[in-house]
Amino acid sequence: MEIIFRPLQSKNYLSYVPSIESDTMTVTANPMGMAPLQIITSKFSWNSLRVHRAATRVNRFSKVAVLQDLKPKLILVPRTTGEKDVSELMDELLEAVQSVQSEVLN
Predict the structure, then answer these.
(1) CA distances from 2 to 31, 42, 58, 94 (A)
(2) Mean pLDDT over all residues of the chain?
(3) Is the pLDDT of residue 42 over 60?
(4) pLDDT value, residue 43
(5) What are the start-end ranges of the E strands in the chain?
(6) Which position among 37, 70, 94, 102 has the lowest Cβ density within 10 Å, counted as fewest Cβ atoms?
(7) Are 36 and 27 in contact (CB under 8 A)?
């Protein structure tokens, strides 16, 4: 698996160009405003209501979730407050990437 780190500035969302190599995207489940999740949802023409509902559930249960039927696949990671250890979430993320057999994660 290859991992590509590409920062996404919310102020520059119009200039965001998705990586053509990526078969899986991972993003924080922040469904509000012009957050990276909304920018990516718009760029890939995903159903925004479905993504919003999934993000809300991810944050409610504080668990990583995968939307495998989207192209590219989407892995949502719950928001964090910076007050807790996130190593368990990192483990969940890596397990999710492995479970969907991602070749290039963005």
Answers:
(1) 27, 24, 25, 12
(2) 84
(3) yes
(4) 86
(5) 2-3, 24-28, 65-67, 73-77, 104-105
(6) 94
(7) yes
Predicted local distance difference test score (pLDDT) of residue 104: 83
7 Cα distance to chain centroid: 12
The answer on pLDDT for 13 being more than 60 is no
DSSP-derived letter for residue 35 is: -
For the stretch 53-74, pLDDT in tens is: 999 999 999 999 999 999 999 9
Domain spans of the chain, in order of start: 21-105
pTM: 0.83
Alpha carbons 31 and 13: distance in angstroms, whole number? 15
* DSSP-based helix, strand, coil % in the chain, nearest 5: 40, 15, 45
Measure the CA–CA gap between 63 and 67, rounded to whole angstroms: 13
Taking the CA atoms of 46, 106, 62 and 38 in sequence, report the sign of the dihedral they define. Answer: negative
Rounded distance, CA 17 to CA 95, Å?
Answer: 27
